[in-house]
Amino acid sequence: MSVDTSDEAFRARFAQLISDLLNETRRDDEPISVAIQAHLGSDGAQLQIHGEELPSFELANLQLGLDAALARPGYSHTVLGVAGQGRRFSEVSLTDLLRSSHHRVGPPEYVSAPAGPSRTLPCLTWSVVLITAPDGPVCLFIRRGEEFGPVHGIVVQAISAKPETAVRFLADLRRLMDEHDVFRGQVISISADNRGSLRVHFLERPELDEGDLILPDGLLERIERHALGPTNHRDALLARNRHLSRGLLLWGPPGTGKTHTVRYLTGRLRGSTVIILSGASLGAIGRIGGIARRLAPAVVVLEDVDLIAQERTFGPQRSQPALFELMNEMSGLAEDADVAFILTTNRPDALEPALAARPGRVDLAIEIPLPDATARRRLLELYARGLDLEPSLGEIADRTAGATASFFRELLRKATLASIEAGHERVTESELTNALDELLAETAALTRVLLGHADGGKPEAGTPHAWMERMAQTPSAE
After folding, report:
1. Is the pTM of this model over 0.70?
2. Domains of the chain listed by start with CATH number
3. Which residues are within 8 A (CB) of 411 and not within 5 positions of it... i.e. 6 or more apart?
């Protein structure tokens, strides 16, 4: 009986293919300890594991630092994923991966982390990186906890046949993370959850023209000189043994332009990191101060600081008022730390105990007052841009003592809406007058409060003009 050799050859090739597939499957599904031990040339029992913990918001920096470290001449690497049940909710370490057969080789996992206002970066998470370095093999383990799980944050561990190799690689990794820091030069906001964990969010840098800011003559120049001057003349100041850190307090009634001023400064501070704090994040001001020093030149902005003057810091005893902790951070800056703190408040009296107990921390206090008649006319002209107005704005400015920017914006919106409904091409005098009468009516008192109108512009009783003036004139300690 003849044999069909072509069939035999086909069967042989098919059998070899099945065998190869089975062998490959076994390799991919092998315990990850086998791959680590083979790379190190040891079972690892006598080797040292070195590592550090990072907050979750450092994930993009970790990836950029790792990419830079592995791109250096003489380095090569292989990335392995870690498979195994329950790994996300337990404190798995490199020791467990070395000794356990439960965790197996799986596909590498990536998560997209923010790296800018409109940029994300794929970042390794729960992975082992087998690195061949010029001074020996290194195994790196990256573990990222679940955001709302019992284990959160990032753990980075390294092991090598020579301990100094692992230590050196981690030190290089930290240096390269700092060199490629995604937060440096950005506008970021920092918030804290109820466990004290920080979250960092990227914000677009505002573009605000000087003409969009209506302040008394000369006031903006003083603010800019204090906030921007030390950074602009850094080397000259240090050469004369002058410190760079400074504190600025903007105070005044609601709606007078404090936030607008901060937005303008943020736009001017290109090249500086601007850190904007939300209420609860002041409880972690110690860590935030460290971030500011790392990202210098930096500006830390805390708006409406009076609202959280009595908040407590995160810590073992939670006994330190957060505002006092902020003062401590400001006083603890090194002479060459180019960090500015900008605080805003509607109630400077609420800050008096902390500021009086820490003289010199805030070295300039500026009142942003209610707009006078000239400023009100400028505000009307600002918010009337693009409108064809029939009436004169001078009379409107005279009738709106105590009004702030938000009041004029709403006034012109209401008048414009009335003009559109009437089918007019221009905003008529009667439409603007009727809108103003409506806002100034007795029945609209609450609306005026909500729009920042002070009903005459008189300062509230008890406004601490005297001590604020003394603080503004107090020179900061060198």
Report:
1. yes
2. 28-179 (no CATH), 187-370+466-473 (3.40.50.300), 373-450 (1.10.8.60)
3. 383, 396, 400, 403, 432, 435, 436, 439
